[in-house]
Amino acid sequence: MWHVPRPQRIPALAHWIPVECLDESALGRLALNALPEAEASRAGAHVATCESCRARLDAVAGGPSPEPGWEEAPTRTVDAPVRTVSQEGALPRGTSLGRYLILERLGAGGMGEVYAAFDPQLNRKVALKLLLPSGSEAAREEARLRLLREAQAMARLSHPNVVPVYDLGEFGDRVFVAMELVEGRTLRTWLEEEPRDWRTVVRTLAEAGRGLMAAHAAGLVHRDFKPDNILIGRDGRVVVLDFGLVVGRGIEAAATRAFHPEAAAEEPAPAPLDTPVTRQGTVLGTPGYMAPEQYRGEEAGPATDQFGFCATLYHALYGTRAFAGNSTATLFFAASEGRVKPPPPEAKVPAWVHAVVLRGLSPSPAHRFDSMESLLEALRKDPAVRRRRLLVTVAAGALVLAGVGGMAKLAHARATRCQGAEARLEGVWDASRKKAIARAFEATGAPYAARAWESVQQVLDGYAAELVAQRTEACETTRVRGEASERVLALRTECLEQRRGELHALTEVFLTADAELLENAVQAARGLPELATCANVDLLGARVPLPADAAQAARVARLRESLAQARAQWAAGRYKAGLEVVRPLVAEADAVGYLPSRAEVLLLQAQLEEGFGNWEVGVRLIKRAAWLAEEAHDDTVRAEALVGLTSMLGYNATRAAEAHDVFEHGRALLARLRTGGRLLSELHSAQGLAFASEGRAAEAEAAQREALVAAERSTGPDSPEVAVVLRRLANTLTAQGRHAEALPEYERALIIFRTTLGTHHPRVGSTLVNLGTTYSELRQHAQALPLLHEGLRILEAALAPNHPFMPRAHGALGMAHWKAGSHAKALEHLRRALAVSESARGADHPDVAVTCTALGEVLLDAGRAREAVGYFYRALDIQDRALKQDHPDLAAALTGLGEALLALGNSREAQGALERALAIRVAARVSSVELGTTRLALARALWTTGTEGRVRARELVRSAESSLSGHVDGAELRDRVASWLAAHP
């Protein structure tokens, strides 16, 4: 392959002495990079300015005409051939790579193979990128570092438009990366499937551009953006692939260490992401999409990715490459001189889009956009939108022109026919309504009132703008452009009017804001029904139509208005007030007999009953709502009912199996509807809650990760919905004893909540409690206690004293004080937690059992075993009635009871409790620390039973010792195990 001399060999061309044209020998040696450095510099400078030599060099470097699409081949070093792998060399189905089982090979590139595989531990398919074997040792190490760097780069990113990395492992002498398996096709294949209009192309590439933008924000540059590195999933999700050439901010410092050993001696070894893996004098990338600075071997930056993005966008828009050439040399010169091919004559791409592409393809990085964000913003500014807004003015001016009056009247009529959607928001969401709500929020006196208002206003401004845009677009589609029927317009208008009614009802509730409402205000605003549904004509048309009788239709309209009021109360957390509105509507809905309204009323009543504490009633009603919605062909209501039912059942461990069945029904429905939005995230998260209630923490983790992907895709990576899922995900990690892994998830959730809800919101306080608890589990008491105290202060200022979360906050602080060595403070907070929990939940609630277990543990540690036994027995009495007999929560109380009975000298009863605890914990695959605690306690009980018991006792403690080896959280228990073994030879 031809290699362009590196930039340090080529000073400014003005300083060069012209040379004569090169002969064939010199051209050949230049193409092979075989000229001495000085001679190569002079020859390269001459070729850059000589058309004749450039054409001859192209012939020498290019050789025979290459196969079509050669420049689209997998990423490679420009000076090294691509290694291809035959299908015969693929790993057979069923091959084990670590815990993964190979299913099939998906493809191979210049550096690795990609397989579909199954992860039995988390019950999901994954994609495995496996480093290819062979080559020199140096080449293998370089490829290994490149794959490690790709894994680190992708793991650093958490964005819906970037494929997430799950795991990294080794298979023999080969390295593999496990990542999400996105079922779909590349952009290239997507473009070949059918003609795509320019708007669809720009919208699709913009999603991939957001993935690049996230990479740049993380300090990463992709360097190989092209059609084959963009994947479009079956659900429409667009993701960026193959970060094998990514470069991070630390690359220059790492390069200095690599070539200056004395510097390396003073600094720690670089991580793979900061290790330079490009040999000096080589160029990486794909010709045809590489920026000029990449051909020259210069440092790549975000502007380099802009060039690749615009080269790809050009290809997608026009069906051809942006630059002419059949070799690396000709493509380099075309890119360096900005010789972009003119668009094909038949292309229907607006000039303004073409101008954006041309700017991104500027030879100089300085002449491109300031950032990917600026580029994407430029692609959003469609002048046609502004022209439509000016059409009314133009048409009105034309009225005064003689001879064109009829045409002007027609233009004016067409332009004004669909105006006035903004007027429909008067009294719903206008300036006076905003001022009134702002005053109501401020009057609550809540410390986070101002931030809550700011977030609510931002959300509702966006909702109102989209409502206006959809109403206008629906009208223009039918009555201006004639692309849809009047029936379609009626369906969309009816749906949008319902949404306007929901918005109106919510703002009415906001006018009566109090502290309880303020806590849920942002969630209520963000929970307004999705407007995208109103554009789905197939979905709207499938429902049972409105009654033909005008009087009955009017009754349905009034019913919907009342229903919107009740739904606003539910969203604001005012369950009692909502029930007062919705309960009378049940009889009215039955009397009207319109099935969709009956289903909606029952769904809302179920949600309100469950929120008010009538769980059984809620479950019964939401099932009926789902059945009625199915009968009415109202898939939107049915999907929401199935998601809600999964959540209701999932919180109850005894009904979790039923929750899993409902989840499957909901998942199938959403798949048929091709809905990947809020409901899909809520459904997966609800399934995670069901797994967690059963004590199946690993499966709960997998479900919450699925929910996180869906939430980020539908609501953005920094939304409160994402933060809620992040907390639930962190809870599943905590349940597995993976406290260090839970920390960053809690921290990210905290940042999102603080940004969107304000620093004094209860969710900020509760997340601080989660964080403090995690630090306490890691024995980092200096960090834990301040966070817990701050969280408790926020909660006490924002919530009622008997709020259900208050016992958890006091309990967490009590346990942290215990682990920090203060029994007195621990008991003070735990007793307060018990009193509040009994008041808020009732004396027999499972939360009360958790607090009783904690009190027993502290009392036992304080030497008060007899008091501790009473609390352990009470906890078990509650849990035996509320949970399954093998639920993991029982094991904590059983272990504590066994240790307390041992302290009182009752070894036989202690052994019984501990045997049951051990069986539960082994079956539930709990953390090594929890399992080791029970094994050690049981060994102590067995030691008193004779020789046979002593043999088993040592086996148990040896098992505990082995499982705790290298466990970050088990240092204290390891010391206790070692002491016991030393004392019991």
Automatic annotation (TrEMBL):
The record's section on CDD domains has: STKc_PknB_like
Give residue ranges of the TPR repeats.
Answer: 807-840
Q: Which Pfam families match?
A: Pkinase, TPR_12, TPR_4
Sites binding ATP sit at: K129
* Xref: Gene3D superfamilies: Phosphorylase Kinase, domain 1, Tetratricopeptide repeat domain, Transferase(Phosphotransferase) domain 1
What range(s) does the Protein kinase domain occupy?
Answer: 100-385
Question: Which is an annotated GO molecular function term of this record?
Answer: ATP binding
Looking at the record's lineage, which domain of life comes first?
Answer: Bacteria
Q: Which UniProt keywords apply?
A: ATP-binding, Kinase, Nucleotide-binding, Serine/threonine-protein kinase, TPR repeat, Transferase
Looking up PROSITE patterns in the UniProt record yields: PROTEIN_KINASE_ATP, PROTEIN_KINASE_DOM, PROTEIN_KINASE_ST, TPR
Please report the name of this protein according to its UniProt entry.
Serine/threonine protein kinase
